[in-house]
Structure to design on (182 residues):
C-alpha cells in the first residue's frame, strides 16, 4: 500500500489513543521484549509504548517514516516491504499489522505471511478488516477483506484469538488475530 504525502500529513488527526494503548498492553501482558509494526506509517500505533521499550517499525513511505522518526526518536524505523522484511529469522517477540494486509495483493499474501512468520520469535498479531471469503472492499485501491485465521492453518502456530475488536477501541471493528508461533 502506498500512502500519499497528504494522507501521511493527516495521519496524526487519525491517532487512536485507545488502540495504541491496547497494543502496548497486549505486548506487556505477553511479556515480550521487543515489537515490530509492519506498515507503521507515522508510528501512531506505537505512541503508547515507553521510550525505553525496544520498538521497531517498517514502512515503504519515506515521508511517513521521517515523521515517525521525529515524533518517536527512541524507536527504530526502517524502510522496507512486508514481502521482503530486512530482518533476521526470529528477530522480534511480537510482530503486528494494522489494516495493512487489506491492501496486499492476493499474489503477495503467501509471501507476506511467510515473512511475518519468519521474523517473529513468539507472536504475530493482526488487526485487519475481516470477511470469511476475502471479498473486495474497494476496486480502486484493490483492497480486500482478509481472513487471517484461514491464512495461518498451514503454519506451525496456535491461534489464540480470532475475534472482532470492540468498537470503542477500533470503530471499524477489525478482526483481532493473535497467533503464537510453535
Amino acid at each position: 500500500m502506498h500512502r500519499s504525502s497528504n494522507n501521511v500529513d493527516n495521519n496524526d488527526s487519525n491517532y487512536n489513543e485507545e488502540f495504541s494503548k491496547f497494543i502496548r498492553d497486549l505486548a506487556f501482558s505477553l511479556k515480550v521484549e521487543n515489537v515490530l509494526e509492519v506498515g507503521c506509517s507515522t508510528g501512531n500505533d506505537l505512541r503508547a509504548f515507553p521510550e525505553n521499550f525496544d520498538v521497531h517499525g517498517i514502512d515503504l513511505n519515506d515521508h511517513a517514516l521521517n515523521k515517525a522518526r521525529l515524533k518517536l526518536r527512541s524507536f527504530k524505523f526502517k524502510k522496507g516491504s512486508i514481502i521482503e522484511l530486512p530482518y533476521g529469522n526470529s528477530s522480534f517477540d511480537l510482530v503486528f499489522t494494522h489494516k495493512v494486509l487489506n491492501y496486499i495483493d492476493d499474489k503477495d499474501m503467501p509471501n507476506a505471511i511467510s515473512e511475518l512468520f519468519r521474523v517473529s520469535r513468539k507472536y504475530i498479531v493482526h488487526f485487519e478488516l475481516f470477511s470469511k471469503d476475502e471479498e473486495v472492499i474497494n476496486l480502486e485501491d484493490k483492497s480486500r477483506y482478509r481472513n487471517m485465521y484461514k491464512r495461518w492453518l498451514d503454519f506451525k502456530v496456535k491461534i489464540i484469538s480470532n475475534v472482532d475488536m470492540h468498537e470503542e477501541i477500533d470503530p471499524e471493528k477489525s478482526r483481532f488475530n493473535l497467533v503464537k508461533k510453535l
